[in-house]
Write a structure and sequence with these properties.
There is one protein chain. By secondary structure, this protein is α/β, with parallel strands linked by helices. It is 35% helix and 22% strand. The chain has helices at residues 14-28, 69-76, 97-108, 126-139; strands spanning 3-8, 32-37, 51-55, 84-91, 112-113, 118-121. Strands 1, 2, 3, 4, 5 and 6 form a six-stranded parallel beta sheet that branches. The longest helix has 15 residues, at 14-28. It is globular and about 40 Å long.
Length: 140
């Protein structure tokens, strides 16, 4: 049984909804899953998990949330090489450029992106819900 962490930050609740769907998918696929908010997770926990889903909405000028999520993720970057991860998040403006930048950062760090990232315009619709569940399954 694989151990999966789902780590997220949510301001409006949309990314939290997505995180819970990712958890659902990973559990359905047989994984042992732990859900964390960004403030509860750090680089020291990276080695405890076979795979990690990181979720953060687009903030400001198409960037990750700066006070809690970005500092946590910056710490984790050193341990991304060879780690199976997936990314998800919501947005309410622009085109989702923050996700492309984030994916590139993860690839440059040597992370193994398990599947296509999931972005949802605000709250996930039925297609977004299914994509989040499938993301969780891909990590398991």
């Amino acid at each position: 049984m694989s151990k999966v962490a789902v780590v997220y930050w949510s301001g409006t609740g949309n990314t939290e909804i997505m995180a819970n769907l990712v958890v659902k998918g990973a559990k359905e696929a047989g994984a042992d899953v732990t859900l964390f908010t960004a403030i509860e997770f750090n680089a020291d926990k990276m080695d405890e998990f076979d795979a990690i889903a990181f979720g953060c909405p687009a903030m400001g000028d198409e960037q990750l949330e700066e006070s809690e999520f970005q500092p946590m993720f910056d710490q984790c970057e050193a341990k991304l090489k060879g780690k199976k991860i997936a990314l998800f998040g919501s947005y309410s403006w622009a085109e989702g450029e923050w996700m492309h930048t984030w994916e590139e950062t993860c690839r440059d760090d040597g992370a193994d992106l398990a599947c296509e990232s999931v972005i949802c315009y605000e709250a996930p619709d039925s297609e977004g819900e299914e994509a989040c569940i499938n993301l969780g399954k891909a990590l398991a």
